[in-house]
Amino acid sequence: MNKKNALKIEKLTKIYSKKSPKEIIALNNLNLEVKEGEIFGLLGPNGAGKTTFLNILAGTVVKDYGNVNVWGYDLDKNPRQVRSSIGIVPQEVNLDAFFSPKKLLELQAGLYGIPKKDRITDTILKLVSLEKQANSYARSLSGGMKRRLLIGKAMVHRPPILVLDEPTAGVDVKLRQNLWNNVKNLNNHGVTIILTTHVMYEAQEMCHRIAILNKGNLVKLDTTENLLDSIKTKKIIFKVKKIITINPDELNGVKFTYKSNNEITAIYERKKHKIDEIINRVKNAGMEIYDISTEEGNLENVFIDLTKN
Q1: Sheet with strand 73-74: strands edge to edge
Q2: Cα–Cα dist 145/213, whole Å
Q3: What is the pLDDT of residues 127-156, one digit of tens each?
Q4: Mind giving me the DSSP string for 94-153?
Q5: Taking the model in full, what pTM does it have?
Q6: 232-307 topology per CATH
Q7: What residue ranges do the domains of the chain occupy?
Q8: Which CATH architecture best describes the domain 5-228?
Q9: What CA–CA distance (Å, rounded) separates 11 from 233?
Q10: Residue 149 in contact with residue 96, Cβ under 8 Å?
Q11: How does pLDDT run across 60-90, given as a tens digit for each residue?
């Protein structure tokens, strides 16, 4: 079955301070599509244009040119439908401390003009695992609970697309896990998720596809799997009884580094060398190996490679 586009962006451009000599191109001719039902990651260093992009979707920043289509609606022609197709979860926790989660969700539904009979407050509280705290004051909630309440707030009008901006900023590891389980649960219920994050392993765990932005340009867009496969180098760490330096003539493109705690690291190109060959080089140099571990590259390596210019 062909999935429809949840979001389609064509030639999206935003330039700040156009009239001054120091114009800033926040987004430069951006083209991308997000498919219905996927978890799509938007990564990039600070100043890459992620926030501008999200603000255009939210309607708080006006684009200069290009087309934005959300759930089949054109941002220029149907701004209201675009807004109702998307729920945006901000980075900052901005909750009224004196309301309960239930009351906050009810108020939010009221702002969207949703009649009482059509509200799904209890369902949302369940989805974001806050049914037990439904009637507690927001000020008594933990950091992770407040984050989940923000997700709940963004869902009162049942948007098919949820945008999470750095959802785990300042959230500890255990709560982070809980938050991700909630996000995966929402995705399993058919919600399309777009998320920005600075935490690479999170993107690696969560996202089906990833777009990497740098200085307003889209530098890479691919499946997480393909991005990880594009890593050129691998690393092996040997613990040896006693270090003997390997003859430079035998290096042949493999880079060995030696540490004082009898540890040797070999970095090599995965397409050029086999792991056995490298183990044999260490053995042939006369070293006794008592432990070997390998480090696969991760998304962080891809990210650094693509954004280091």
Answers
A1: 24-35, 5-16, 65-70, 73-74
A2: 30
A3: 888 999 999 998 899 888 888 899 999 999
A4: ---TTS-HHHHHHHHHHHTT--GGG--HHHHHHHTT-GGGTTS-GGGS-HHHHHHHHHHH
A5: 0.80
A6: Alpha-Beta Plaits (3.30.70)
A7: 5-228, 232-307
A8: 3-Layer(aba) Sandwich (3.40)
A9: 34
A10: no
A11: 999 999 999 999 999 999 999 999 999 999 8
